[in-house]
Write a structure and sequence with these properties.
mainly alpha; 7 helices; 0% strand; elongated
């Protein structure tokens, strides 16, 4: 284990030196590979931090410029990424397991409640079945009475509707006859007026007044019949 750790520390130092010597970002894949080796060896973030610190000392970077230190820090950040992801996956797995356990507990509780409700429902169903068997005769009798009342109500409704329709037809015929007779009388008087207009002015005025009374009577008749129809 110590030999593997020492070899990995040497590889980390070499990779860090290459990253600092090359263009920015070129050596980062090597840092990621080192991080994966660290995960495979069971190393933690603190172990990799010690390697990084030793590499900084051996490379003589303790007093390096801030830009160099930032590049070195970037290499370290990339190297610990696999470890961080492993920890995140483990946390997520534990979280999922806890959620599953909670869900299982709730389901178990719900199942127990459902079983109690089911047993209670079965008892009530047996009670209802017994009551229905006991009162079956009364139920059948009430059902027959209900059907008879329903049939009687439908028949009565048809009779009322038929009587109303007959009454409307009767009133309509009466109105038609009354209006026809009145209009016929008005037509006759108009013909008479036409003949008398040449010779008898006084008689003409009387005929006009009589005709107006017939028209008023006809209008009143129509109004009365329309009112009767509206009340039906």
């Amino acid at each position: 284990m110590k030999l593997r750790l020492k070899r990995l520390a040497q590889q980390y130092e070499t990779g860090l030196a290459r990253h600092l010597a090359e263009k920015d970002g070129v050596g980062l894949p090597g840092a990621l590979a080192l991080g994966r080796q660290a995960v495979g060896g069971g190393l933690e973030t603190l172990d990799l931090a010690r390697m990084h610190e030793q590499g900084i000392i051996k490379l003589g970077l303790t007093n390096a410029r801030p830009a160099v230190m930032r590049r070195a820090q970037k290499f370290f950040t990339e190297a610990i990424t696999p470890i961080v992801e492993t920890h995140r996956a483990a946390r997520e797995s534990r979280t999922s397991l806890n959620r599953l356990n909670e869900l299982l507990a709730r389901c178990t509780g719900d199942l127990a409640v459902s079983n109690r409700k089911l047993k209670l429902g079965m008892v009530r169903r047996h009670q209802v079945e017994a009551a229905l068997k006991k009162n079956g005769a009364d139920y059948s009798r009430l059902l027959r009475n209900s059907r008879q009342l329903h049939d009687g109500f439908r028949q009565l409704t048809r009779q009322v509707l038929a009587a109303q329709e007959d009454e409307r037809k009767k009133i309509s015929r009466e109105l038609e006859n009354e209006v026809a007779q009145t209009l016929l009388g008005i037509n006759v008087r108009l013909l008479t007026l036409k003949q008398e207009a040449k010779n008898n002015t006084v008689g003409l005025k009387n005929e006009i007044a009589s005709t107006q009374r017939m028209v008023a009577k006809s209008v009143k008749t129509v109004q009365v019949v329309a009112t009767r129809l509206g009340k039906r």
